[in-house]
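note to self — DONT lose this again. spent like an hour looking for the file last time. sequence + predicted structure for the chain T wanted, 111 res
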Amino acid sequence: MDQLCLADFGVARIVGKEHEATTSVGTLAYKAPEVNFYLKYDSFAADIWSIGVLTCEFAVGVPIPFPQLTEEKKKEKGDYSNLLKLAEECCNSDPKARPSASQLLQLMQDI
């Protein structure tokens, strides 16, 4: 399967070609920073942020990425440096610098 699906059906919606949104719904720990400002944001880039947070949680059991993730917690959970690097790229504070879904799939295949 060449797809990564992320869904929260409580707030799911169909987005158009522009994929801009202005709503701020969802669980705080998983929402991209730009979502909280009630301005137009790229909903695809915001979903990439959420994938990064989930990846971090899968790897070390902490849903909030950097800087809250301490070295001690990383060591306690084992070596997941590749997953954490992926999470870090997804959780870039600049939405335009986050990987696209296609780039993310390629990064995941390389792990």
